[in-house]
Every structure is written in C-alpha cells, then in structure tokens.
Amino acid sequence: MNFTSLLQEKRLTILLSGDIDHHAAKEIMESVSAKIRVYLPQICELDFSGVTFMDSSGIALVIHALRGMNQLGGTLRLTNVPPQPRKVLLASGIQKLVPLNQERSPA
Amino acid sequence: MKHENEAVIRFPSLSSNEAFARSVTAAFAAQMDPTLEELGDLKTAVSEAVTNAIVHAYPDRIGPVVLRLRRLAGNVLEITVKDTGVGIPDVAQARQPMFTTGGAERSGMGLTIMESFMNSLTLRSQPGRGTTVRMRKKLIGRGETACKP
C-alpha cells in the first residue's frame, strides 16, 4: 500500500486512508515502518483524516510506529482522528503513550 | 430469546470477509435506526469477532465462519460469530487486555473492545470443537428528530 507522505524538516507526515482492519494492517504497518526507516524523521505524524474504519488492528499499527520512533529517539503524533477510530484508540488507553492531538472540531 | 428478525450468513475465514461482515451488519442494523456512533460500535465489534475467528480459530487452514444477526425486543441487536476451529484452551486468559497469541500485527485488545462497545458478551469455547461469541447491544437510535428536515 502506498500512502502519500510529506517530509518537511525532519517531520514526516503519513496520510492514512481507507479501512484499517486485520486484512489491511500488515501492509500498512510495513509501509509506515519502511517510511520511518528511510526518512529517519524526528517527528512522525500519522494523519487519520482519510481513515474510513479502524478496529484493534490500528492499535497494533500505532504501537509498531511508536516503537520505530522510540528507537530513533523521535516523537509520534496522531492527528485528525475521526470519531470511530478515536473511540477505538481511547478504549485501548494508548493516549497515555501517544497524545491524540490536533483534534478535529465536532461536526 | 424470541427474535423479530434474523439473518444468518456463512462464509470462509478469508480476511477479505472482515469488510463483508461489517457491511452486512451495518445493512441489517439499518432497520433499527442506529446513530452513526452506534453503527461504528457494531461494525467495530463484529470486525473484532470475525478477525478472531479468521486469525485464531483456523491458524493453518480456511474454515467456516457463521455470522448470525438478530433483532430482539426493545431494539436490541444480537450478533453471534461461530466457528468450528481449534477453540480457546483458557478463556479467562484470552479475555485479559493485551493478551494475544497472534503476531506483531495483533494488539490483544479485540475482546476488550468488543466488551466496551457492546452491552453484553458471552464467550463459549471448547478446544478442538470451536468458539462462539455472542454480543448484544441496545440501540437508542436517532429518534424522531432525525427525520425532520
């Protein structure tokens, strides 16, 4: 899976899209890890604005990306998380490790 | 429990059927006038249950998964996901958050999420015979105001 990503002064933004479920997770995870390895960012931003559905596979994806960024001594950010993926992330307690910042204003 | 409507779908444990199971559940639930948030909860719970059957029940082969959707009295939706796979040797352990026998792409949060997104969850499993997970959720729905222009 090839997601659009932007690199700006050591800040990597990856625009996630579609359904993040078990069927798609492995490919998404590998794609995100590869981008982190190639660009070695200080900040990695996972932008969820294009995500149409997410289950617990997305939690594994975030944990995986977090490990990658911790190894680099960098920071992971989750941005523009729509309500359904947000609810899944909050149920997992992951916000204690990665803040869900840059909230989308409620519709 | 007596039901007002029912759909039973049987499909092989292919991961591409995760999205199918979510769509079928959303389509069945539409008659109960759910809110967008309730619909998201139902899709998430069914996605977790079907993924468990695909990943854990049949680790080395493709096997049958049966999804049963029932509309019960009081606008309650019951979702049952049944497999005839390997079963769970220790159900109490499987229900622990973060516990998983899956690979790096699993978080071990599936059952925790099903429990928190639905009102009730029953898990029955027999090693060598299979697993059945039954979940219920009362839908408050959008009410009459949603129909006004």
Rg of chain A (C-alpha, Å)? 13 Å
Class of secondary structure makeup of chain B: alpha+beta
Strand proportion of chain B: 25-35%
CATH architecture of chain B: 2-Layer Sandwich
- Any idea how many domains of chain A? 1
Q: Largest interface, by Cβ-Cβ below 8 angstroms: which chains and how many residues each?
A: A-B, 22 and 26 residues
In short:
The complex is a heterodimer of chains A (107) and B (149). By secondary structure, chain A is of the alpha/beta class. Chain A is built from 3 helices and 4 strands; from the N terminus they run E-E-H-E-H-E-H.
Overall description:
The complex is a heterodimer of chains A (107) and B (149). Helix content of chain A is 41%, strand content 29%. With 107 residues, chain A is of the alpha/beta class. Chain A has a single domain (5-96), classed as STAS domain (Transcription Regulator spoIIAA). Chain A has a four-stranded mixed beta sheet with strand order 1-2-3-4. In chain A, helix 1 (22-39) packs parallel to helix 2. The longest helix of chain A is centred in the first third of the chain and has 18 residues, at 22-39. Chain B is α+β, with helices and mostly antiparallel strands and 149 residues long. Chain B has one domain (3-141): Heat Shock Protein 90, CATH 3.30.565.10. In chain B, helix 1 (17-29) packs antiparallel against helix 2 and helix 2 (36-57) runs antiparallel to helix 4. The interface between A and B is medium-sized, with 22 and 26 residues.
Task: List strands and helices in order, with pairings.
The complex is a heterodimer of chains A (107) and B (149).
Chain A: E1 5-8, E2 11-20, H1 22-39, E3 43-54, H2 57-72, E4 75-79, H3 83-92
Parallel strand pairs in A: 2-3, 3-4
Antiparallel strand pairs in A: 1-2
Helix pairs in contact in A: 1-2
Chain B: E1 3-12, H1 17-29, H2 36-57, E2 64-72, E3 76-83, H3 91-94, H4 110-117, E4 120-126, E5 130-138
Antiparallel strand pairs in B: 1-2, 2-3, 3-5, 4-5
